[in-house]
Design a protein that fits this description.
Blueprint (H helix, E strand, L loop, with lengths): L1 H21 L5 E5 L20 E2 L2 E2 L7 E9 L3 E10 L13 E7 L13 E6 L5 E2 L7 H4 L1 E7 L2 E9 L11 E10 L9 E4 L16 E6 L10 H40 L1
Parallel strand pairs: 1-4, 1-13
Antiparallel strand pairs: 2-4, 3-12, 4-5, 5-10, 6-7, 6-11, 7-8, 9-10, 11-12, 11-13
Bound molecules: calcium ion (2 copies).
One calcium ion (CA) binds next to loops.
Length: about 270
């Protein structure tokens, strides 16, 4: 009896482990962009339709003076990035890498490997001052990205879009590797003082290996809106009008035939 109980418990543990492995949910989602965001640093309404990745993990200096989140959208051609950041010290003094900036880490195919080996594995460091920097992965990504930033008081917004390096990924249900971190230069010496990250750093170097990245699932689908024009409406009515004409013609023929029969009958009576 004890042996059966042990076997049953072992089975339960194995099945639980398998189900967790097979059905592990993505860490976040990116919605299909039925309206394309304008890349101008101003938050479009469509951004409210997709999830937020809040950076709650605090790095150096306990994430002093900085908070932020990103959101992602996608369509057949692009992946879109929105970063909304609060930084109490937007000094603009340090325009180099690792100053006030947003680090986006992407693996379009979720390479799940050491390093950033594919063209579709890239990193973007974007600053609110309009500059970008390369660290790892596809170097051309910093030249290919289109982005705009807008500073308002102690906050800034960055909107960016990047053409898919692997367009086969651009479909509902695909899972990409992704993380975002925010860097803060506090004293204006062009060096990072504090930082925060969406995914926790728990011994997994997301800045070095795609296998360490969180997962984002592409969700939603293209909504096709069929517009009915005046010409289309007129064309839709036309067959009904033709049928009506036919009915009138039939009635007229029947009436004429009936009149003929009456005339014949009248002639016969004479
Ligand atoms: Ca915009
Ligand atoms: Ca700063």
């Amino acid at each position: 009896m004890k042996r059966i109980l042990t076997l049953a418990l072992t089975l339960v543990v194995i099945l639980t482990a398998v189900s967790v492995t097979v059905f592990a949910a993505a860490d976040s989602t990116a919605e299909y962009a039925n309206t394309k965001p304008k890349i101008d640093g101003v938050i479009d309404d469509v951004w409210a339709t997709t999830a937020k990745q809040e950076s709650t993990f605090k790095g150096d200096k306990d994430g002093e003076g900085i908070s932020g989140y990103t959101s992602l959208l996608w369509d057949e051609e692009y992946i879109y990035y929105l970063a909304v950041v609060k930084d109490a010290t937007l000094l603009q003094a340090g325009k180099g890498a690792s100053t006030d900036s947003v680090d986006l880490w992407i693996s379009e195919t979720y390479s799940d490997s050491e390093g950033y080996p594919k063209d579709s594995d890239y990193h973007l460091c974007l600053t609110p001052y309009g500059t970008s920097h390369y660290y790892i992965g596809n170097k051309s990504s910093t030249e290919a990205v289109q982005f705009e930033s807008k500073i308002t008081g102690d906050s800034y917004v960055i909107e960016a879009r990047m053409k898919w390096y692997d367009p086969s990924v651009a479909k509902t249900g695909s899972v990409i590797g992704y993380n975002v971190s925010f860097n803060n230069d506090i004293d204006g010496d062009a060096k990072r003082d504090s930082w925060i990250s969406w995914q926790p750093y728990d011994g997994r170097p997301y800045w070095a290996d795609t296998k360490a990245l969180n997962k984002v699932e592409l969700v939603g689908e293209k909504v096709i809106v069929v517009e009915t024009t005046a010409a289309a409406k007129a064309a839709a009515k036309a067959p009904a009008a033709a049928a009506q004409t036919f009915d009138f013609t039939s009635i007229a023929l029947i009436a004429m035939a009936a009149a003929g029969i009456s005339l014949t009958a009248a002639k016969k009576r004479r």
